[in-house]
Amino acid sequence: MIRLSFCAIPLLIAAALPAAAATPPAPDVYLSRCLRAAQGGIESAQCYGEAEEQAKAQQARLLAALRARLSRPGPSGTDYPAAIRLLEEGQAAWETYVAADCRLLETVFGDGNAQSLASADCAVKHYVARNRGLEQIRKDFLD
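Given the sequence above, the corresponding structure tokens read:
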């Protein structure tokens, strides 16, 4: 028979409950923490890959929220259908720019060395900046 003290019971209950969903850090904060813990090039590359995926997922959520908000009628005198088209046009142009900008670094630094991570760093930085801009648009104009 196992005997538990009254002090241990709350700890056991707390351990059995699902942890509250903590807000994950921003992709650039995650990347910084991950790189400090990385023990080599492969782990560093994984950090960049995970940070980029987080940033892309965040961007997808932001764009979906903007599209949803713009699909409803706006205040008098606004043209939300045109705004959606412009959002899509701007997003496509941004994606083209980021691809070219980061590909430039791949071309300059080459493949197979730590310097080639500059392209991954470039992508994460661009996504983080774009996401902050999209969030600001939502807050300033659509909330």
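Residues 24-142 form one domain. Try to locate this feature in the token string yourself.
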